[in-house]
Amino acid sequence: MATPLNALVHEAQASGTLAGLPERHLINGAFVPALSGALMGTLDPGTGQAFASFAAGDAADVDAAVTAAQAALTGPWRALTPAQRGRLLYRVAALIRANADRLAVAETLDSGKRLAEAIGDVAGAAATFDYYAGACDKHQGDSIPLGDGYLAYTVHEPVGVTAHIIPWNYPLSSAARGIAPALAAGCTVVAKPAEQTPLTALMLARLCMDAGMPPGVCNVVTGTGAQAGAALVRHPGVHHISFTGSVATGIDVMQGAAPHITRLVLELGGKSPVLVLADCDIDKAVDNVLGGIFENAGQICSAGSRLVIDRRIHADFVERLVARARAMTVGHGLRNADMGAVNSRAHLDKIAGYVDRARARGVAVLCGGRPTADPVTGRGWFYEPTILDGLAPDDEAVQQEIFGPVLCVQVFDDIDEAVALANGTDFGLVAGIFTRDFAAAHRLARQVDAGQVYINEYFAGGVSVPFGGNKRSGFGREKGMEALRSYSKLKSVAARI
User: For FRET with 188, which of 288, 361, 365, 466 sits at 20 to 30 Å CA-CA?
Assistant: First the structure.
């Protein structure tokens, strides 16, 4: 019987950790140590202290995992029908739900996010496996009418061994987002979670094994990006790479994949605008703008980090935002304050650097703007909810992804200016639009250069809606049926009969 959530929280608060957390790679159906024997520590951002250790993998461990994944492609996994794969993925979803509390507490300790957010992420991971379980036997080709005497059709085949470089901000949900469709398409998997957040990817892979997945189908290698991630990207036995992370690392991934012509899906940075028109429902828009930037302490690629607002409502709207932001509490994720920790000391310093430089340039810091700590323990890596106002289009804080709880406010006087501001960065991941004018909203959605547009609800959609970026936000799409196509090779057959 699963341990209740409150008991797990008590254990973690009392001991600083959870018993039985995984500390080895999962390769070919078994937990195995790094071939070098090396271990690393993972830190709880809410305390700044190590709470678990894990295998520090390198190229040798990656090679073992890829070899296992290659062998599994021609084993029992290949013999499963799409419907059988679907039933297996449904079992994974059920096991995620059965272990949801433990997964959520581990995710909170590893990432620093609020427990409520981690619980939502676990539910999303289960929903992702459900969605692709149902899609397994519906990923079908086409019949092409060439006329009498010919038969032509297309077939979707698994691309092969897929590599998944998982980010630290959404460790479990990002893992599920890539692994589930890859498995649904019939591929095998080697995942490399971020060294800051290795645990829940290992726990997910264990649940895949418990569901009956053949050995070698789903493998997880832990370690640093330099030692394990780079080796995985450059491995000639990998046929597809899914990477979520920074633009700079994405460029390195592209270069590493190039010699082997390895397929790529890159979901990189964002500086997403939220366009708020004067006729909007202000209360609803304020709620969404706050959630869009302060959820997960702003550490979201698709965070609504720029408020692009009509001058006529700017003063009132920002006044409401500031009052709400000042009232927010911060604290360790297990206590469910309004906002949790940022992921690392280095990242906290990066966020603070952006705001300190903005303040030195004379930018108005309406609230926040300082590092802080857990009010109970005085420890951990926290940054105050921060709003910067009146920013110029070329300001560093507008143009660069801060990736923290910092909202940048830009003001427009007409729709053309709003569009220019929205499109005025090198990023194009998502955009939000708030207005009561449905026609205006859809005209703006056409004009904004973004991979996904939310209208009157930020973060609208779900696993069934394709997600990905334009410009320096990357290319390719995760989620939806588009993800299945990402993990498939299309074969055309034409015959004279």
Answer: 466
